[in-house]
Amino acid sequence: MIKNEFRKLNDFESKLLSKLLENPFPGRDEIRDQIKNCRVKMLDIGVDNYGSIEFETDSKSFAQVKQRAPVEARAFENNVPIDVLIHVVDGKIKELEIVKLDGSPIEKIPSPSEFKVTIRE
């Protein structure tokens, strides 16, 4: 049986979040504050899990974002897009979603520096 308990961010997750949060957008600073002492756990353990995580934070700050997923990034594996999105619910970071758009397994996830970030406004 696989344990899926809340834990600290791993190095890859921290670097990917830093990449997503490097450019300013409404709510960015509050999201940064929320992830300082956050805990995370894997979402949807199963065949199509690409590393998406759920957040738990006790931060008192609230992100005033314009939409649920205010920032996203895209990189490619074998010409297939891999998208990463930050989801914010009720002013709190809720999820870091990682999805390969053709549904196939990710053989080697691109490094955070390979992702091109887009602010969704």
The total count of strands amounts to 6
Structural class: alpha+beta
Taken in chain order, the helices and strands follow as HHEEEEEE
Low-pLDDT sequence parts: none
Shape, principal axes of CA atoms: globular
Tell me, rounded to a whole number, the average pLDDT: 92
> How many domain modules?
1
Rg for CA atoms: 14 Å
Short overview:
The chain is of the alpha+beta class.
Could you please describe the fold and organization of this structure?
With 121 residues, the chain is an alpha+beta fold. The chain has one domain. Helix content is 16%, strand content 31%. The chain contains 2 helices and 6 strands, in the order H-H-E-E-E-E-E-E. The protein has helices at residues 11-20, 28-36; strands spanning 39-42, 53-56, 71-77, 80-89, 92-100, 116-119. The protein has a 6-stranded antiparallel sheet, with helices on one face. Strand 3 (71-77) and strand 4 (80-89) form a beta hairpin. The longest helix is centred in the first third of the chain and has 10 residues, at 11-20. The model has no long low-confidence stretch (mean pLDDT 92).
Could you name the key traits of this structure?
121 residues, six-stranded antiparallel sheet, single chain, alpha+beta
